[in-house]
Amino acid sequence: MKQPMRAMSEPSDRSAHAGTPFFDVRMRGFRDRAEVADVIALLAARLRPLPGEEIELQEASGRVLAEDVSSPVAVPSFDRAAMDGYAVRGQETFGAGPYNPLEFLVVGEALPGRPFSQPVGPGQAVRIMTGAPLPEGSDAVVQAEVAQEQAGKLRISDAVPPGRHIGRRGEDIEVGTAVLHAGRILRPQDLGVLASIGTARLRVIRRPTVALLITGDELLPCGSRPEGYQIVDSNSVMLESLVRRDGGIPLSTLLIPDSRPAVEAALVSAQADVLLISGGSSVGKEDHAPRLLAELGELSVHGMALRPASPTGIGFLQNRPAFLLPGNPVSCLCAYDFFAGPALRRLGGRSMDWPYRKHSLPLARKIASAVGRVDYVRVLIRDGQIEPLATSGASILSSTTRADGFVLVPGDSEGYAAGQEVQVFLYD
Length: 428
Ligand code: AMP
Ligand code: MG
Fold this sequence. Notes:
Structural class: alpha+beta
Number of helices: 9
Strand order of the largest sheet: 7-4-6-5-9-8
Shape: elongated
Helix content: 10-25%
Distance between the termini: 38 Å
Strand content: 25-35%
Bound molecules: adenosine monophosphate, magnesium ion
Mean pLDDT: 94
């Protein structure tokens, strides 16, 4: 297997000792490039979901449940009326009809949270509202529509068998039922169910924290106007938003000059579960991050069989994954989505799969690609067909805003012919 791949498959504790055998690629170029699928497999093998933490139920929407939850109680915990009407002994209504109303004595009232406390005797009825506990002795509810109450007397013009219009104890959730399983991304209605079984706090997987190290002497902080030969850092705001999308917490964002000591200091002091380093990831003279990562920890992969984003590196620093993302914004987005995103989701207990909706549509024009690399092709969808965007260099970030999505051409393919049906991933 290729040299960088060998480093990849070694045990994770090597980063504790540091010092990956290092071929200095600066001004020489990559010797070989790792296959995308192998790198994803490496990340899946080396990363495990973070431990759980206990949080308030109110904070749990969208979080990943860390353990199975089963109900300690029955919901509801009592038999209750499912209709507004009158609680009776169902058997006593048999024979009632429009031409044969039967008469009952109304002896009281049951409201939600305010039960009628005596048993219901023969010939008696209790006025009852939806959700109120069914009084002892009664076993059915006559709807208000088929009952007429006047001066304490009730005339019922329809029969209701025992059990009619009643919600039984445990009909929603029985005691001991497994209501939700570990790994569940909690929906709003899940929180409702958890509340109904008496949950106040619960264990969810901790959200991975992320340190963003944005390198480049030419960069102005986000929010500035581009000036002179300087450009505005667009990667940090994009990455922060991707991190949030994937359930992570962007902890800190630093702009760092292209100097070895500055990059080293930032790497060493970063306090997060995941490090994202933007820029300086390639084979240029000022590309310090790959070498530093190899020296301080482990550079597992450097150079991907992927376009754009081939100058991507992945490694570990004190057992925390570090992603060296190319500075070119499209490459940065692509490298994040291919590698950092899945890693982050894995740590957070989520699926490593792409978070984009997929569609199959025919191609309006052909897509050419070289065998041996995966291509990330920005495309438009027009009249039910996929159109590859013409201008789509790695530095043209607006290609990703004009595009509706992207098509991936696998490594073993020379591309797709016009008219061929292919899968498109939609950005929205
Ligand atoms: P690098 O990967 O550092 O060699 O950068 C490649 C290209 O991306 C250069 O043209 C940089 O100016 C540009 N670039 C680097 N970092 C950023 C950033 N944070 N935001 C926007 N462009 C960047
Ligand atoms: Mg740079």
